[in-house]
Amino acid sequence: MRVSVDEAGALLSRSDSAGRRRRSTSPRPPGARGGGLLRRQSSSFREDVGHAASETYLVSRLTFSLLQYLGLGYRWMSKLLALTIYAILLMPGFIQVGYYYFFSSQVRRSIVYGDQPRNRLDLYIPEDNSRPCPVMAFVTGGAWIIGYKAWGALLGRRLAERGIIVACIDYRNFPQGTIGDMVKDASQGISFVCNNIASYGGDPNQIYLMGQSAGAHIAACALMEQAVMESRGQPVSWSVTQIKAYFGLSGGYNIHNLVDHFNERGLHRSIFLSIMEGEESLSRYSPEIVAKKSSAETIALLPLIVLMHGTEDYSVPSSASQTFVDVLQNAGAQAKLLLYEGKTHTDIFLQDPLRGGRDPLVEDILSIIHADDAIARQKIALAPIPRRLVYVISEAKFASVDFMPSHEERLELYVELVDGKKDEEFHGWDNGGAEFLETQTEPDSQVQLTETAKGK
After folding, report:
1. How many domains does the chain divide into?
2. What average pLDDT does the segment 158-185 reach?
3. Any idea which UniProt keywords this protein has (predicted)?
4. Which of 216, 319, 347, 433 could form a disulfide with 211 if both were Cys (CB 3.0 to 4.6 A apart)?
5. How far apart are CA 145 and CA 436, in angstroms?
6. Could you give the CA distance from residue 170 to residue 48 in angstroms, rounded to a whole number?
């Protein structure tokens, strides 16, 4: 039996109200002292654990509802299995980011911005907020189906460490809602940020908008819709002129061109068209087409638009960003494209930050945010390099695609993970590609691994 949109919404509402009940506390008498501090700390810990359990329950129930809606076909199950393996391999890094998300005093979770169950956002606050900080409103990805605000924790942490407040906006997913609901939620979340961020230490004159994957599409839809309304003199709750720049990472902006592509990759045509409210709505929710048809007044309102894409992205081809930039530039908008050579759909956003070291995405974002602030750029240049959170990035990358690594790719994997890393546990594919090797990367072991990779 399939689950309807209304039933999914009711499920979410029940789960959300249950979470609020868990988070509620009894008032304490004003004169309570002594053991009060310990009780407050214990109560706060219980609230955090209860909140984590509530949101885990919510996401799990919605996942099972979605699987019932979609049906358990072989292709979906194989993709789910690959995703599960991918998540397991990255689990050490996820645990560290999850601990930061749930227990860091710099993260303020589930701030309500609207009256819908998923109208919540998380704020990542820099430790040094002695003066108003630049702000990034971020819409997470998730194929319009599994988007969730916590997916932005890694980016939120990285930018907060560099003095940027990040607001990760949650929104209704399919089948709880369709694209119109998602755009409405995102726009309402952006409005909250624009109108309230000053009370959290943000600079209302330095607000930026960003989206990743499906979130890039949703955020671009909200931006274009707002520009059209504003140019026509219609009432708005936030202004496009409040946004200093828009960053679109690995997004698709002409939905007409992606229907068949997604169908071939497992997001079936009928489901995708249901998400997009039918074939007749594809143009309305294609920012590229909206920009092409927009008036000069609408285009003039748009901020700087920076599209970022990996050249080896097979989920959404980089040509999607290229054509959108071309349309915007031809229309007279400020737009530019940043291509990341050899990067896949998730490399830039997930694997590279988990790997540690230089983060080209964050560096490119900060170079634009601080383009006119030489002191800030100097501080960022002197900041410590982020440490590695996980050591099995390459295996996870292989697990996320539809083929096993070739002989040459296995050799590259060994070289990448072994080179310069002593006394660290190493996991790699053996020659059969199905069984894991486990050894210590001492000099002798490096020779052993290299010889194994060469088939000796």
Report:
1. 2
2. 95
3. Endoplasmic reticulum, Golgi apparatus, Hydrolase, Membrane, Transmembrane, Transmembrane helix
4. 216
5. 32
6. 19
| Same-domain check for residues 413 and 288 | no
User: What's the pLDDT score for residue 95?
Assistant: 85
Cis bond upstream, residue 175 (ω within 30): yes
Half-sphere exposure of 305 (CA within 13 A, CB side): 32
Residue 411, SS3 per DSSP? helix
Is residue 23, in this structure, part of any structural domain at all? no
Q: Residue 428: in which H helix or E strand, if any? A: strand 425-429
Sign of CA pseudo-dihedral 58, 62, 63, 64: positive
Q: Which domain holds residue 414?
A: 404-453
141 and 175 share one domain:
yes
Query: Tens of pLDDT along 309-319?
Result: 999 999 999 99
Same domain, 347 and 444: no
Least-confidence region, from 202-216, 289-303, 423-437: 423-437
Active site residue 370: no
Active site residue 345: yes
Q: What phi and psi values does residue 344 have, to the nearest 5 degrees?
A: -90, -170
| Domain presence at residue 65 | no
Spatial separation of the C-alpha atoms in residues 288 and 254, rounded to whole Å: 6
Instruction: Indicate whether 263 belongs to any domain.
Output: yes
User: Measuring CA to CA, which residue among 166, 294, 317, 152 is closest to residue 230?
Assistant: 294
| Pairwise CA distance, residues 78 & 345, whole Å | 19
Q: Tens digits of per-residue pLDDT, 334-348? A: 999 999 999 999 889
Are 366 and 414 members of one domain? no
pLDDT band, very low/low/confident/very high, at 116 (cuts 50, 70, 90): very high
Whether the pLDDT of residue 154 is over 80: the answer is yes
Answer yes or no: do 315 and 174 share one domain: yes
- pLDDT interval class at 84 (50, 70, 90): confident
Backbone angles phi, psi at 312, to 5 degrees: -105, 30
Res 278: pLDDT: 95
Please tell me which residue in 110, 213, 286, 294 is annotated as part of the active site.
213
Q: Which of 16, 191, 315, 345 is catalytic?
A: 345
Residue 131 confidence (pLDDT) above 70: yes
Q: Is 122 a catalytic residue?
A: no
Q: Which of 122, 170, 313, 347 is catalytic?
A: 313
What are the counts of helices (DSSP H) followed by strands (DSSP E) for the chain? 18, 10
Domain CATH code at residue 219: 3.40.50.1820
Same domain, 314 and 422: no
Residue after which a domain boundary falls, among 382, 415, 432: 382
Same domain assignment for residues 339 and 252: yes
176 shares its domain with 287: yes
